[in-house]
Design goal:
- The protein is an alpha/beta fold.
- 46% of the residues lie in helices and 8% in strands.
- It is built from 24 helices and ten strands.
- The strands form three sheets. A five-stranded parallel beta sheet has the order 2-3-4-1-5, covered by helices on one side. Strands 8-9-10 form a three-stranded mixed beta sheet. It has a two-stranded parallel ribbon with strand order 6-7.
- The longest helix has 21 residues.
- The chain is elongated.
- About 15% of the residues have low confidence.
Length: 600
């Protein structure tokens, strides 16, 4: 007899044997017990979580005849009657499984629905199970809609898919939908323990934990990997052989990397990466294991007494607890995020080990520098040193008869109910006349130690305005500026013609010819000059333009810039003269960012 793989040999045959899907088991069991049966069920979930298995158990529950042949619909099929054994062996005539991945056309669905008009031959119900139903074509879905909505009373539909987003809403609305969840590694580990105990295969718990994690929530994948591990280990599942089979990274390497990152030890990080390369271990698995360790560290930092991290059968628990004390919580979160995103970038690099090294060095690059041998500074909420109580700043040689301290509700920096600009003198209690000067100093608390700001704050103008302020005004410049402004109001000159008019200085003026001077040689072109000349002639200036290169001192552009600078200066003076602005600058250390003042 040929060997039967573990995934098939230990496929659950009753709801009680189904692992990790209690929410589905409870709903179906109650429906079967109360005879509240829907005509169509949709099971969704990733590969290997039990969609087909649940479908077969449901078919047995609907058609079970009992060990004595007198049974009915039940949530616990007997497993020994004709219907149960035939369904388990795949030869029950009233149970049809259709693989929609290879039978996705309308003809296959039509052939299946033709059988719906005939009553069951052996069983109580006909059950049509369509696996990977999302692979059906649109016409196939449309062909089954009517029958799916109102099937005969003896017909039940069971649909299964790994991608419910591709199933049309018209089909979803006709089915009861159950989402089979990926199984936790602890659940998979417990089941593998039972299977290997039944198979009498020696195993190490650490090796089974690696298999459970590698399965990523799929029980079928876990059992298939276990089959491979048994063959690889010569009939024994050991941690070392499982690591070599999976290419998994030893936890000591991962913990060493995290510890080196916590201490900012770049040499150890690079040496460990080289060791991983020499051993041929997976860079992707390294980052995945690091994210798992960092996640557990974050849990320990937020919930120190968390039971999951203190499990007695976990050899990493104590080491992870020590590492959690080396890093502040915010740095742990940063390392976790960089490892998670770095995992997706490995495929973009020509060498995954070089990419791994870069990800780890990126962790060091974002780590704030620490003194040699010093522990990382913990983030606390201690108040800044400059916000000290006033009593600590009063000289001992000048005693105060009665400390004058406003109530906490009136403090500027400790309450959110009173605005910072509140006048404290209205609410301050009267001070002693003998120490009136001291009492006056005690009103504004807490004291800020800062240089006394001047009554005026001079703000530099933006660079482009400061460079254009100096203009040597001339009579020709006044005339040319007026002509250009009138010309620009017509929107006639555009592009380089507009720039020539603004950047040029009128140096010679006669009744028939005007001479312009420009600094930029790129503007001294015949085509640009002719267009400007045509625009001037359209404005009534029948002259011929001549252009020369040289330094300029009075151009319309410089005049406009000087006017803008003067307007900005006046706006700054108006703003700085405002009493409210002066109060904010003087009493609360406010600043006006240079260049932030804009004029219309």
């Amino acid at each position: 007899m040929s060997y039967l793989v573990l995934a098939r040999k230990y496929r659950p045959r009753t709801f009680s044997e189904l692992v990790g899907q209690q929410h589905v088991v409870q709903a179906l069991s109650n429906a079967l017990t109360q005879q509240r049966l829907h005509h169509a069920y949709l099971f969704t979930g990733t590969r290997g979580v039990g969609k087909t298995t649940v479908s077969r158990i449901l078919a047995k529950s609907l058609n079970c005849q009992g060990a004595d042949g007198q049974g009915g619909i039940t949530a616990s099929p007997c497993g020994v009657c004709q219907a149960c054994t035939d369904i388990d062996s795949g030869r029950f005539v009233d149970y049809t499984e259709l693989d929609a991945a290879s039978n996705r056309g309308v003809d296959e669905i039509a052939a299946l629905l033709e059988q719906a008009v005939y009553k069951p031959v052996q069983g109580r119900f006909k059950v049509f199970m369509i696996d990977e139903v999302h692979m059906l074509s649109n016409t196939a879905f449309n062909a089954m809609l009517k029958t799916l909505e109102e099937p005969p009373e003896y017909l039940k539909f069971v649909l299964a898919t790994t991608d419910p987003q591709k199933v049309p809403p018209t089909v979803l609305s006709r089915c009861l939908q159950f989402n089979l969840r990926p199984m936790a590694p602890e659940t998979v580990l417990e089941h593998l323990d039972q299977v290997l105990a039944a198979e009498q295969v020696a195993s190490e718990r650490a090796g089974l934990l690696l298999l459970a994690r590698a399965a990523r929530g799929s029980m079928r994948d876990a059992l298939s990997l276990t089959d491979q591990a048994i063959a690889f280990g010569g009939g024994r599942v050991a941690e070392e052989t499982v690591r070599r089979m999976l290419g998994a990274v030893d936890s000591s390497h991962v913990l060493q990397l995290v510890e080196a990152l916590a201490h900012g030890d770049g040499k150890t990080v690079v040496d460990t990466c080289d060791a991983l390369r020499q051993q041929g271990l997976s860079a992707a698995t390294t980052l995945e294991d690091m994210t798992r360790v960092l996640q557990r560290m974050a849990v320990r930092q937020m919930v120190p007494a968390d039971g999951r991290a203190d499990a007695s059968d976990d050899p990493e628990a104590s080491r992870i607890g020590d590492l959690a004390g080396l890093l502040p919580p915010d740095e742990t979160q940063l390392l976790y995020s960089i490892c998670l995103h770095g995992r997706a970038e490995l495929g973009l690099a020509p060498d995954e080990y070089a990419a791994l090294t870069m990800v780890l060095l990126r962790l060091l690059a974002f780590k704030p520098p620490q003194p040699t041998g010093a522990m990382p500074e913990k983030k606390t909420l201690t108040p800044p040193p400059e916000a000290q109580p006033v009593a600590a700043l009063v000289p001992a040689a000048r005693p105060v008869a009665a400390p004058v301290v406003p109530p906490a509700s009136q403090a500027v920096h400790t309450s959110q109910e009173v605005p910072p600009w509140e006048d404290f003198e209205e609410n301050a209690p009267p001070a002693s006349t003998e120490y009136a000067d001291v009492a006056t100093e005690l009103v504004a608390i807490p004291v800020r130690i800062q240089p006394e700001p001047s009554t005026r704050t001079e703000l530099p103008a933006p660079p482009q305005l400061r460079a254009a302020v100096a203009v040597q005004r001339t009579a020709l410049g006044d005339f040319w500026h007026t002509v250009v402004q009138e010309l620009l109001e017509t929107d006639a000159p555009v592009g380089l013609v507009r720039e020539l008019a603004l950047q040029a200085e009128l140096v010679q003026h006669s009744a028939s010819e005007w001479t312009l001077r420009v600094e930029r040689a790129s503007l001294n072109q015949a085509a640009i000059r002719d267009k400007l000349q045509a625009a001037l002639q359209a404005q009534g200036h029948g002259v011929v333009l001549a252009i020369e290169n040289g330094p300029v001192a009075d151009t319309p552009a410089r005049r406009n810039a000087a006017a803008a600078a003067e307007k900005l200066r006046q706006a700054e003076e108006t703003l700085l003269a405002d009493p409210f602005v002066q109060t904010m600058l003087r009493d609360f250390g406010g600043k006006i960012v240079p260049g932030s003042i804009k004029t219309p």
